[in-house]
Amino acid sequence: MPRLLAATVTVVAAAVLAVGAAVGAVALLRATPEQPDTPLITYEQAAEGSTP
Question: Which residues contact 52 (CB under 8 A, 6 or more apart)?
Fold first, then answer.
């Protein structure tokens, strides 16, 4: 009987750890990183009437 109890406790502990890891991963994936509002590339606007 003690081996059955130890196996049951081990399975329950493993399940709890797996669920905790899954919830933590989902929480990390849903976190929105702070992003600057500046573009990496800017294009100069051509003056009116000029040809390319």
Answer: 46
